[in-house]
Specification:
Elements lengths: L4 H20 L3 H14 L8 H12 L8 H15 L13 H14 L7 E4 L6 H9 L5 E5 L3 H13 L4 E4 L12 E7 L4 E2 L2 H4 L11 E2 H11 L1 E12 L8 H11 E8 L12 E8 L11 E4 L6 H23 L1
Parallel strand pairs: 1-2, 1-4, 2-3, 4-7, 8-10
Antiparallel strand pairs: 5-6, 7-9, 8-9
Helix pairs in contact: 1-2, 1-4, 2-7, 5-6
Length: 331
């Protein structure tokens, strides 16, 4: 059976990354960074030894990236990243699934359809799969920003953006520390779940815990709100238990004070291997002088990604809701 473009690209990336891994003893993901960087620059990095450089040069001669569609490049990179993360213990390091990221991208485009310019920020970008897919749904004039503390994930994200020819400004830092960033009008984030270890820094937030460590995912919602303009939108991928925790009352009060709830999209069960990791898409608008809450938030249960007719039906419902929402906003 003839291989698809994605399969051929993945095979090339995987074979080359394993060659680097075996030659340098670097972990697979760090070896993949070297390979993707070489693919972008069409030359091996200067710090490699002569034998490995020659091997990569030979591999590059057999790969013409111009023959491949941008989305196939993205998918091949994702397959290689997923292979490298196969034994990862931390669920939050896994890339946002394509199907989920595409729903977020679609919603982002709907929310910003009347904007002249979109400034987009992902404060927990990981390998930037969510961010780059969202950019596919937005106009070319979109200014994109991203933050990631893990250096390997950040390097993979930068390679991801470069090979897809997407301009993104990256911050390598703890996303709960101050940014040199003017407020944006759209935030997307696949929130990592867990405790934030820096109690001193957490003390600066309204959503700090009264005792013990604060929840990082709560603080990230507050941080994102701070860097959003009045009237701007925020789309979070949240754990289904977000409002069931011991600190959820404070989170509810914070959201009531600072934002309008635009919608909640419950994702299909099969999208997550473990029920503990089930997530939903939570859509907010930061309150401003001229903002009003929707008459009825967008509340939907997304059907199975395998059922095309049900998908088309739910998209029709979403489009109808947005038409009514913006009609109400203009009055």
């Amino acid at each position: 059976m003839e291989k698809t473009d994605v399969e051929m690209l993945f095979k090339w990336m995987d074979e080359t990354a394993r060659a680097v891994e075996n030659h340098t003893d670097e972990p697979y993901l760090d070896s993949l960074v070297i390979v993707l960087d070489a693919l972008f620059h069409q030359a091996p990095p200067p710090h490699l030894d002569a034998d490995l450089s020659r091997h990569i040069e030979t591999k590059l001669q057999r790969m013409d990236l111009s023959n491949y569609a941008t989305d196939d490049i993205r998918k091949a990179i994702q397959l290689a990243i997923l292979k490298g993360m196969k034994n990862a213990t931390q669920q939050q390091h896994l890339p946002t699934p394509d199907t989920v990221a595409m729903i977020i991208g679609y919603i982002a485009a709907k929310l910003t359809q009347h904007y002249d310019n979109v400034r987009l920020f992902d404060p927990v970008a990981g390998t930037a799969n969510l961010l780059t897919i969202t950019l596919d749904y937005l106009g070319e004039s979109t200014a994109a920003y991203a933050s990631e503390i893990d250096p390997t994930l950040l390097n993979l994200a930068a390679c991801h953006a470069n090979l897809q020819k997407k301009e993104i400004e990256f911050f390598h830092q703890d996303s709960l520390r101050p940014f040199l960033l003017d407020p944006v009008n759209l935030v997307v984030a696949d929130l990592p779940v867990g405790y934030y270890p820096d109690d001193t820094r957490a003390a600066a937030f309204e959503l700090k815990a009264d005792e013990g460590h604060s929840y990082a995912h709560h603080l990230l919602i507050e941080q994102s709100m701070y860097y959003t303009t009045d009237g701007g939108y925020l789309i979070f991928l949240i754990p289904d238990f977000l409002f069931e925790s011991d600190q959820s009352d404070k989170l509810r009060a914070f959201i009531r004070e600072h934002a309008h709830i635009i919608g909640l999209i419950s994702l299909p069960d099969h999208a997550f291997k473990n029920k503990k990791h089930r997530k939903s898409i939570f859509i907010l608008q930061k309150k401003g002088k001229y903002t009003t809450a929707p008459k009825q938030p967008l509340l939907v249960k997304w059907p199975s990604f395998k059922h095309k007719a049900a998908q088309e039906d739910i998209l029709g419902q979403v489009n109808t809701w947005f038409a009514a929402y913006f009609d109400n906003q203009r009055r």
